[in-house]
Amino acid sequence: MAEQKDAKHEQLEAARVEAGEGYLTTQQGVRVDHTDDSLSAGQRGPTLLEDFHAREKITHFDHERIPERVVHARGAGAYGYFQAYDDSLADHTTAEFLTSGEQIPVFVRFSTVAGSRGSADTVRDVRGFATKFYTRQGNYDLVGNNMPVFFIQDGIKFPDFVHAVKPEPDNEIPQAQSAHDTFWDFVSLQPETLHMVLWLMSDRALPRSYRMMQGFGVHTFRLVNARGEGTFVKFHWKPLLGTHSLLWDECQKIAGKDPDFNRRDLWDCIDSGQFPEWELGVQLVPESDEHSFDFDLLDATKIIPEEQVPVRPVGRMVLNRNPENFFAETEQIAFHTANVVPGIDFTNDPLLQARNFSYLDTQLIRLGGPNFAQIPVNRPIAEVQHNQRDGYGQQKIHKGRTSYFKNSIGGGCPAIADSDVFSHYTERVDGRKIRERSESFRDFYSQATLFWNSMSEVEREHIVSAFRFELGKVVDKEIRARTVTELNHVDHELAARVAEGIGVRTPAAEATPNHGRSSPALSQLNAPVNKLDTRKVAVLVADGTDAVGAQRLVDELTKKGVIVELLAPAEGELRPGASGGGPLSADRQLNTMASVLYDAVAVPCGPDAARTLSGDGYAVHFVAEAYKHAKPVAGFGSGLDVLRKAGVTERIAEGEQVTRDHGVVTSTAAEQSLPGEFFDTFADVIAEHRAWDRKTDSVPA
């Protein structure tokens, strides 16, 4: 009887283990009592190499995907150059690319985080913004994102976070989406994620283009000068074209119409000579001010508000060459946060410390061995000499008898350098070996509140809608309720608006109210950059379109830097309208495209064409959808009939005088009588990106 009980107990124990129940252990079966913080020398000290649990956990995570990247699998890249404006940083750093004023070659890779290589570009996600600088002092990699903070504070939790956001393991659903139970279960139990989650639910997660996207180094790094003195630094990329986003409805439709929307946009603009450009800025903090903030500089879930430390412009980057081969260059490029040059060093940020281990470990398996730095896209322009030999992918034929140091047989070569070397910043480190987070990392809500307070009402509406969409996909009602409770710590109004849309009871207001602080720099709409360059406009035409007026529209907008395409029910040459004019040819067939692929739409004159387009459901929907998405809409002459059929309710011109109303530009004029003011006015509203004051809730699309 005892033997039967023992056997049954073993079976139950085995079933329990198989189901993932029981105590957390290492792969060797050693029980673990803490998996949220790495082992460090003191609460704010560096992570220790002897932390076998963290190394095992991260190593296994690094090797989970073959051959695509575990995260940031889907990306696009380009070559270009960076050039510092002057030598004003020379007192802070010996990094020559920041002070020399020379053009430094770069390769930049943009990416999504959660999806596979086959996922769409326009998913709601963080975007990677990684830059490799090929400098005379060696390669420097600034491995950043389009958001300045991250979900977690300590890298030991990175496998947990990514496992939560990836498709759920039982059914591999959903792809490239955070709108599912495991992600929000993680978020609702990890309040440190909330600041980043606010960014993820904002328009920042839906960039219009990689060229219209900010980039951030995320971590606080350290600049080191020739005297060995340090200055804390955060890196910022700001796009010359401004920071602009899509709408969530557009993103979902673009994923079907053109899943390569962002990579195609980058490629086409560089290919046509319209080179994207960013300005590099830095926030500098003297070491004496390290503890003068109400947050910890080593906490990657926090920003330094620009009102406290302004961003100082230091140089510009231009991308001007597409890769020759996607796999050889974009896919094989290997970034690493620990690829630094003299004058740039690390801090004890526990997330950064883990990344410094993880990236190299990941590349070893993804690129087949330790010689991936010899792949052309990864190869430094600086001279490379060392005693590392053999291994998978070895391309260099080493000569001589020695591969060690010190040696006499090889004449002591390669020799130890005595100048322009990398010297680690000298910092005293002491403390107990502990798994314990500093109390200065414990504020999880105030910067999430700062972000919410800084948003315009339009941006707040989008954030609330995003939360409702994401949490509406969560099946477990307890996870929904728990998340709303966490949002209540950020702002009661936010929690109430989200709760109302997902069937969750609104929690009582917090005893400690919203702190009321804001940072205008966090809003995309507070200081917009209104540029026309590379904006795409669809002009709807058909047989009978006024060729003179349509061509004037194309010519005037093209002169201003706009990309104009003529869309018709059938591709090819069109029958001219009664006014005559030169031949007009459609660039694309209307039903192969969609309004979500363009920044604006216009309908020129031509009675026959207007009748055709008004009777074409796809053409009417094209205009109505663009209008609903608050995009600029224009029409003149009989083209106004198409706008009316599409449900455009803004004031439409009743005479030849140009009328502008909430981003709708109209005139009854046709052909040569169309005033030049029409083109200038339409260009102005295109540059403004959207007509956010347009009320389109009741417009069908």
Automatic annotation (TrEMBL):
<dbReference type="Pfam" id="PF00199">
    <property type="entry name" value="Catalase"/>
</dbReference>
<protein>
    <recommendedName>
        <fullName>Catalase</fullName>
        <ecNumber>1.11.1.6</ecNumber>
    </recommendedName>
</protein>
<comment type="function">
    <text>Decomposes hydrogen peroxide into water and oxygen; serves to protect cells from the toxic effects of hydrogen peroxide.</text>
</comment>
<feature type="domain" description="Catalase core">
    <location>
        <begin position="25"/>
        <end position="413"/>
    </location>
</feature>
<keyword id="KW-0479">Metal-binding</keyword>
<keyword id="KW-0560">Oxidoreductase</keyword>
<feature type="region of interest" description="Disordered">
    <location>
        <begin position="25"/>
        <end position="45"/>
    </location>
</feature>
<dbReference type="GO" id="GO:0004096">
    <property type="term" value="F:catalase activity"/>
</dbReference>
<dbReference type="Pfam" id="PF06628">
    <property type="entry name" value="Catalase-rel"/>
</dbReference>
<keyword id="KW-0408">Iron</keyword>
<keyword id="KW-0376">Hydrogen peroxide</keyword>
<dbReference type="InterPro" id="IPR029062">
    <property type="entry name" value="Class_I_gatase-like"/>
</dbReference>
<dbReference type="InterPro" id="IPR018028">
    <property type="entry name" value="Catalase"/>
</dbReference>
<dbReference type="InterPro" id="IPR011614">
    <property type="entry name" value="Catalase_core"/>
</dbReference>
<dbReference type="InterPro" id="IPR002226">
    <property type="entry name" value="Catalase_haem_BS"/>
</dbReference>
<keyword id="KW-0349">Heme</keyword>
<dbReference type="InterPro" id="IPR043156">
    <property type="entry name" value="Catalase_clade2_helical"/>
</dbReference>
<comment type="similarity">
    <text>Belongs to the catalase family. HPII subfamily.</text>
</comment>
<dbReference type="Pfam" id="PF18011">
    <property type="entry name" value="Catalase_C"/>
</dbReference>
<dbReference type="InterPro" id="IPR041399">
    <property type="entry name" value="Catalase_large_C"/>
</dbReference>
<dbReference type="InterPro" id="IPR010582">
    <property type="entry name" value="Catalase_immune_responsive"/>
</dbReference>
<dbReference type="InterPro" id="IPR024708">
    <property type="entry name" value="Catalase_AS"/>
</dbReference>
<keyword id="KW-0575">Peroxidase</keyword>
<dbReference type="InterPro" id="IPR020835">
    <property type="entry name" value="Catalase_sf"/>
</dbReference>
<dbReference type="InterPro" id="IPR024712">
    <property type="entry name" value="Catalase_clade2"/>
</dbReference>
